[in-house]
Amino acid sequence: MKLLKQIFDFYLNSSIHVALSCFALVQITFYFFHLQYNAAITFFVFFGTIVGYNFVKYDALVRVKKKPIGNPLKIIAFLSLISLFLVAYSFFQLKRITQIVSIVIFAITALYTLPFFPNKKNARNWAGVKIYIVAICWVGATLVLPYMDAEIPFTTHFFVKCFQRFVLVFVLILVFEIIDLANDDPHLKTVPQTIGVKRTKILGFSLLIPFWILGILTFTFHDLVINLIMVITLMLFILFANPGRSHYYTSFWVESVPIFWWLMIVFF
Description:
Layout: H1 2-13, H2 16-32, H3 39-64, H4 71-91, H5 96-113, H6 130-149, H7 156-179, H8 191-195, H9 197-218, H10 221-239, H11 248-253, H12 257-267
Helix pairs in contact: 2-3, 2-6, 2-12, 3-4, 3-5, 5-6, 6-7, 7-9, 9-10, 10-12
């Protein structure tokens, strides 16, 4: 049992689970825009998520806090290195415009982690902006990149989907911020810190309603039913979120929502 827990913790700590969530959203993008499966984009986003998230999570521990590197962290570093090579390989399979946009997303991720400006903290510690930066990066990686690599003209349908994807990721992050309320630096001015847990939950519920209603314009009845199940599931996660919850509540269950959504599309 202890070994299984160690394997499961490694699966979460190495960002493989969050990479699967991004993978699922990329597949959902292929589905909704009727795009042919693109292996280069799929691998680029999956392994890029592993590299990006591990860089964000462990950079401060190693570079700033100088904490000793244990065996689990060494394995994660090795996995990230392998993923970096696969990202580089996939990058050169992408269209030129997709490469440019991916570099922009990488620059935002780097800005989020590294203090580029003198006497300034990284963007991760800028008051009130963390949630928007993360949501924009997710929309860019899981929707904009696959769409642009398919070389399809921009349409109203595309912008509606971008808004919906932004709302989905924004609400997912709200749950994280509720769970992390007790540990987050007060200077971050996260949404729960600013308006309280109750109002944050109301905000999450309020955003998911237009998310689903907008689907009436672009989804089939089959997709609307699946989306409704996904929205209700996420609403339940919001309802039962509180600062006393285990980190598994968000790092596994909440981040499984995109995977659950994709699996429903595939099987139902």
